[in-house]
Amino acid sequence: MDMPEIPRDQSLIEYPCEFPIKVMGLMQESFAQTIVEVVVLHDPTFHAGKMEMRPSTKGTYLSLTVTILAVDRDQLDNLYRALSSHPMVKMVL
């Protein structure tokens, strides 16, 4: 079921702002660096120091929280699409 589209003039986010995004994928050596590379394409100010990493209890998955400088809705939408469609990513919140 698709979420209803929120009209642009009714956004609850005030731009620019620091915006955390959680990205989850299988634990693999290149996952964190790959996600940093995707994020930097959409927020050139982002760097790995703005990322928190948390492995799952069994070490199967890695959860990354990336905090970006969100400048507008298009940037956020494009970043969510890029992350959600990436083959290494299982979930984006």
From TrEMBL:
Family: Belongs to the UPF0250 family.
PANTHER family: UPF0250 PROTEIN YBED
The protein, known as: UPF0250 protein EJG51_009535
